[in-house]
Amino acid sequence: MATAQEVQGTIAQPTTRLTTCIGCGITIAISGLVIIGWCTGERFIVSILPDAPTMKLNTAISFFTCGLAMMMLRQKANTLHKIGYCLCAIPLFLGLASLVQYYTKTNLGIDSFLIVDRLSDTDYPGRMSPATALSFMLVTLGILGASSRRPYLVIASQHLAIMVLIIAATAIVAFLLQSPVEQKHYFLQTMALHTSVLFMLLAGSVLVWRPTVALAGILLGKGPGSRMLRNFLKLCITASLVIGALEVYGVQYGYFDFQFGISLGIIVFISITTIYVLIIADHNNRADAELELKQQELEDRNRELSQFVYIASHDLQEPMRTVYNYSSLIANERDTLSPEEFDHCIKGLKSAGQRMSTLLEGLMSYSRIGRQNQKETVDMRLLIDEIIQDLELLINETHARIYFADMPTVIGLRPELRILMQNLIANAIRYRKPDIYPEITIRAQKQEAAWLFTVQDNGLGISPQHHEKIFQLFQQLDAQRGKTGLGIGLAFCRKVVQLHNGKIWVDSSPGQGSTFYFTLKA
Questions:
Q1: Topology, domain 372-522
Q2: Alpha-carbon distance 301 to 369, whole Å?
Q3: Whole-prediction pTM value?
């Protein structure tokens, strides 16, 4: 069962305080009107419905004192608390005394102590029903427990409130289904409709008094379980009332007998709840899939952050160290440096500064990928045509040949997809074999829920132990392959593919060319 642990982030205290005050105010107002009705002899006020049970005077007085007690106990002043505790004694006494009268067959004289009941046609005029008496004892104890600072008393008060809600709801449903008074159980037979409604208000106010504790924390919480519980309760209550009403009218008008109506109602209720549970299960499965995706994105972000930290502590340190060494040399030995040595230091400073500027620019460009998160329809064929036009000078210089057939249309970030394809095509041209014209083949194959793209070349190739390294920031193999570069292009490619919930990898061997694969959601 629920514990006393408080759930963070639930309904704000001012909201529940207002709810409780409204419930208490309505209870005090209606019970006060009923007291006036008994003083004036107006039957409509004390019974509401014609020939319906009346709210007894003792019942109205108990409601009035319960509402006042709850209002007092919600204040901070100790004096008001003491008044509230004293007021709670009245409904406790009247409820207990009424139950004693019922089950000992005695008359303690409390039913007609103030006014003789001439409006109720019952065996015990002026006496509240057994259900009313028991509910007053439960709800009053609930008020006292909810006002306590002891968690176990607060939990107990919520369970008492649930019991009162069940009793009151049973009486209300009987009224809604128009059950004849003589067919009701003796326990509920003389319980008035507005009595049941006021018990619902009081019990609900007790339940939400401490909105972050135990049952209230579960019911009023903002978590997925709490939201599902509230929706499920709404469905159960609505479906039960509708099915019950249809059963009553079906039996009354002879469409089916009572036994068949019960069976039909059970089957319909099970069907409705099963469909609801299936919908919720599907929704939760989708939510779990989205959560896993977000967790993967978070892991990728953490990996990027680790790379940034490494770059800040390693890659950027190298040009900074060069700047420090040359500047120290100039500052400490400028009088002894020859013009050639001085020029060498200046060139070293300039080169280190440019290197550091390039690294920082690369980091900034990498961090900006995906910030404009507005996806659109992208025709990959048109995109590749544009890239080929932009690389026309490089293609002509190297006599590169680019082959691609029909390309699909995808939903994605157009600028980022352009970076992806341009880097792959430019790298395929750049890392070509000497004296061999580069040939690049681009294909797309439809899979279950994604497009698999391949970019194949006949270039230098990549050793298998470097297949993962090349996708990391500033991890370059250019020195080994006779090229110079920043080592950020393929890191861009992987980030773009990850933004589109895809994967990228390479299949390559030295001297055998490379084939880059990546997936985009169809």
A1: Heat Shock Protein 90 (3.30.565)
A2: 13
A3: 0.57
